[in-house]
Amino acid sequence: VTDNINEHFSSISFQLFREQINGGLKECCEALIPSKDGTLVEYRSANTAAKVNAGLEIVSVLNRHFGTNIPVIIDSAESICKPRDMAEQVIKLIVSETDEKIRIKVKE
Question: What are the angstrom distances between the C-alpha of 102 and each of 51, 94, 95?
């Protein structure tokens, strides 16, 4: 099951079971994200940019799986330098002290 799910993702993977001390398996669902040195860290331990990029990959995979193409909104987009490229429309919400009014910038 784990391999079947993970084959759909290019950078993240999921841990679906944890081995218990008694040798049994406990169900879980933990996203594992590659760190700068390539080791996989649990989602909750990753930095903000890694979490956002993991979420973007998950959205892309689900869009492909369900045959949809929903737009993606990235809140606090100023906290991520390099969001992953996506086929979906991306709307970035960025806090800017210099902008007194809402500014819309369209990238073609």
Answer: 26, 10, 10
DSSP 8-state assignment for residue 9:
-
- Say how far apart CA 48 and CA 28 lie, in whole Å: 22
* Banded model confidence at residue 94, pLDDT cuts 50, 70, 90: confident
Task: Give the tokens for residue 50.
Answer: 């890694």
Rounded to the nearest 5 degrees, what angle is found at the Cα of 23, between the Cα atoms of 46 and 13? 30
Predicted confidence (pLDDT) at residue 54 exceeds the cutoff of 90 = yes
Q: How far apart are alpha carbons 77 and 51 in whole angstroms?
A: 12
Phi, psi dihedral angles at 19 (to 5 degrees) = -75, 130
Q: Are 39 and 70 in contact (CB under 8 A)?
A: no
| pTM > 0.85: yes or no | no
Measured distance CA(57)–CA(86) in Å, rounded: 8
